[in-house]
Amino acid sequence: MKELSIRKLIQALNFKRIFNFVKVETSFLISKLFHRNICWGFPYIFTVEPGSLCNLKCPLCVVGSQKLNRLQGLMSYELFERLLNEIGNYLIEILLFNQGEPFLHPKLIDFIRLSKKKKIYTSVSTNGHFLTNPDKVRDLIQSRLDVLIVSIDGASAETYTKYRHGGNFQQVISGVKKVQSLKRELKARHPEIYLQFLVTRQNESEIDAIRQLSQEIKADRLLFKTLQVENLEEANLYLPEDERFSRYIVSPDGIKLKRKSSFTCGRLWRSSVLLSDGQIVGCCFDKNAEYPAGRLDGKTQFKQIWYSKNYAQLRNQTLHKRTIGGLCGNCTEGVKIYHI
User: Which of 21, 192, 241, 302 is the most exposed place for a label (fewest CB within 10 A)?
Assistant: First the structure.
């Protein structure tokens, strides 16, 4: 919950959303107890991928490393509007980011405006390279976005580019300062600015420096996020030596998440993901849509997909054993991934 503003999240609540939340959580508890899919209500958290394109080439990102095997592109605004018109009244939180850089979508501000019109707690995560245009930043502030997460994995240009390949450290810092400056000019309290520092072996020596930089640019919060790797080779190359900032136990035999084996995941009851091409997947860890639950189109509604056999099968599998191919192996449910 460290990446959330609890105060603003509470403001998104109303009777309908609270009642839906209770139904969802009750059905998950019953499902967990009887090891059988029982699903009531609709997801109260939704991840929406405005686009699956990016301007950077980060080595552990499926987009940056060109390992995204599904169709890449931008989501149509009409598709997003259709989703919110159908279930927006149940949603407490919407995350307008998944794979790719959200600000590459020319209508991202319209996505935010519609979310806020529905009074949904809304956040966007960005690499920060599209925050220097004063007019666009002004539109962003006036959209009433709740939280803007800016990834800045280094406190110096040299260190930053060791992971953010193709990035411009000074441009990102200038962009954050521009947002803060215009917020003061407009006397706006939103969006809150969260700096996100992905801790790697290459930048862990700059933890104190990024704390100081965060204070200088008056970020509302500084998040230290643990790194996701897929194998021992990546672990040895990128995981920090300080084990506090690693989500894995590393041994010569491989890597293992620091998670209790008895933990039951509730993501498939609480949340869902809409990809830029219209596919619905159960979890953000299904990066290549290997286990699609369905596709939103002019004929199919989300509610049909949510209660479909595909979704039921996924839920039943996670209840019995979290081994759905590569989907559950790196899932962070039950794992500490953020530090402050």
Answer: 241
Neighbours of 86 (CB within 10 A): 14
Residue owning tokens 């590459």: 104
Contact between residue 111 and residue 98 where contact means Cβ atoms under 8 Å apart: no
Residue type, 82: R
Q: What is the pTM of this model?
A: 0.94
234, 240, 244, 250: CA torsion to nearest 10: 40
Q: Give yes or no for a contact between 147 and 86, defined as CB atoms under 8 angstroms apart.
A: no
Instruction: Classify residue 258 by its DSSP letter.
Output: S
- Alpha-helix runs per DSSP H in the chain: 6-11, 15-34, 77-87, 108-117, 134-142, 157-163, 169-186, 207-216, 232-238, 267-270, 302-306, 309-320
Contact assessment for residue 109 and residue 143, using Cβ atoms and an 8 Å cutoff: yes
Is the N-terminal amide bond of 191 cis, ω within 30° of 0?
Answer: yes
Tokens, residue 170: 């000074």
Residue type, 314: L
How many CB atoms are closer than 10 A to CB 132?
17
Residue 318: CB atoms within 10 Å: 26
The answer to whether 327 and 286 have CB atoms below 8 angstroms apart is yes
Cα distances (Å, whole numbers) of residue 24 to 32, 90, 293, 339: 12, 11, 18, 28
Confirm if 1 and 192 have CB atoms less than 8 A apart: no
